[in-house]
Specification:
heterodimer; A: 114 residues; mainly beta; 6-stranded mixed beta sheet; 0% helix; B: mainly beta; 7-stranded mixed beta sheet
Amino acid sequence: QQQVKQSPQSLIVQKGGIPIINCAYENTAFDYFPWYQQFPGKGPALLIAIRPDVSEKKEGRFTISFNKSAKQFSLHIMDSQPGDSATYFCAASSHQTGANNLFFGTGTRLTVIP
Amino acid sequence: EADIYQTPRYLVIGTGKKITLECSQTMGHDKMYWYQQDPGMELHLIHYSYGVNSTEKGDLSSESTVSRIRTEHFPLTLESARPSHTSQYLCASSEYRQGVYNEQFFGPGTRLTVL
């Protein structure tokens, strides 16, 4: 059972475009939503994260939008660059379980064309 | 760059062989994890540990086993490798404080191919 559903599976944009990656969840106990970025041959690395008490968080060109009532969150990349080409994973975690383990989405492979 | 290391980076091995994938971290993190990453990119948690002498099974059933004898070391062992074990294996670590979420730091992964 997929705890976090992510779409699209792949995305191609022109340089300067604004790719948007969407995630949805069902478990209302989730209270932490990070995004990880993975380059080929590397492990994922934390990009940005949000908690459900805010609706938006921005770090540089990366923005998370969070809709608690819809149980959805999305990643926007402003002014995308070829160097942003990577695989992006959304994830969710709940402190209520005690384990604080992450449940990952299926990933989105982003290609930014120069 | 995270201080978490995995060896080997690539391994091609025949069916029935015993293998151990190594993972070490120098950040003093209590919690460590093993994920299996499918060719289609999805990450599945197969094992985790809260600290020395602690091991737990993750969400995805796995025939592998783990041990945690030292804080910095979390090896994964397959007693008898099969082609179905072909995958990428990612190790990660984080601090662990109950009620607080801490960033997971990932190693570069071991790509295992079982012929």
